[in-house]
Design brief:
Radius of gyration: 17 Å
Helix content: 25-40%
CATH superfamily of the largest domain: ATP-grasp fold, B domain
CATH class of the largest domain: Alpha Beta
Order of helices and strands: EEEEEHEEEHEEHHEEEHH
Number of strands: 13
Shape: globular
Number of domains: 2
Structural class: alpha+beta
Distance between the termini: 34 Å
Strand content: 25-35%
Largest sheet: 6 strands, antiparallel
Bound molecules: cytidine-5'-monophosphate
């Protein structure tokens, strides 16, 4: 990996180039941020957990035909992924109403719903990732109509597959923030990360919160929860 060059320095991840122009190395660190970066801390070993959890999730998704950027796990903190052009769009799939949407709609956190809710957010730090709809996406030219259809298809399928995978591990996927990217040959695939940092994950039996909400709400044992998610998914993966 002699041509390793930093090409993106995110808060919680660093992306490096590799000898192959279509492949990047993603490094997961222990920095954790919330509320648009206002709250920040180092959570020991979080990067290791998220690297492993993402790798497991992307492998399960690939097996179920959900095309994504993951190639291989390199070590505890790094994975090789296909290089994509970032699309500044987040799709939040909600299997219950929690967090910002529960507050927006004035319902209890964790309200059970009969259908999955999909929200689009414009990925823009300066504007604080505002919620937008399909017509905003097309008006801003973020993607074409066909690409948006594919993004909905990939994220809806990903949500279904991930719900089942977490269920196999005795956990409930409450919501997930998913992102897609464009490969060099113009194909839209699932990208970014799948971890307790961008998913709400509750213990199915006890309702215990196992995700970043622990950090957001100053709850104890954030590392322990992330490790628990990793270990439970590792076991479910082997089944
Ligand atoms: O805060 P909100 O309820 O909108 O979050 C929905 C989901 O998206 C949660 O799982 C949260 O962790 C994730 N999220 C994220 N990045 C953000 C905002 C939310 O990964 N910037």
């Amino acid at each position: 990996m002699s041509t390793r060059e930093l090409i993106y320095d995110g808060k919680e991840k660093k992306v490096y180039s590799t000898e192959d122009p279509d492949v990047v190395l993603i490094h997961y660190n222990d920095v954790t941020t919330a509320y648009g970066g206002i709250k920040r801390a180092v959570i020991k070993d979080k990067g290791i957990c998220n690297n492993h959890i993402s790798a497991l999730a992307f492998q399960v998704l690939a097996k179920e035909g959900v095309e994504n950027h993951f190639i291989s796990l390199e070590n505890d903190r790094e994975q090789l992924c296909r290089k994509i052009e970032i699309i500044p769009l987040q799709v939040v799939a909600r299997n219950r109403l929690a967090g910002s949407t529960a507050r927006m709609l004035g319902v209890e956190n964790g309200t059970v719903i009969p259908n999955t809710v999909f929200e689009l957010r414009y990925n823009n730090d300066r504007l604080k990732d505002p919620m937008i709809n399909d017509t905003h996406v097309l008006a801003l030219g973020i993607v074409t109509e066909d690409e948006l259809k594919r993004i909905y298809y990939l994220t809806a399928r990903a949500n279904e597959v991930l719900k089942e995978f977490f269920h196999k591990a005795g956990m409930e996927l409450v919501d997930a923030k998913l992102e897609c990217g464009r490969t060099s040959d113009g194909k839209i695939i699932l990208s970014d990360e799948i971890s307790p940092d961008n998913c709400r994950i509750w213990d199915e039996k006890t309702g215990e919160v196992l995700d970043k909400d622990r950090f957001r709400h100053d709850m104890s044992d954030v590392t322990v929860s992330y490790q628990q998610v990793m270990e439970r998914l590792e076991k479910a993966f082997e089944k």
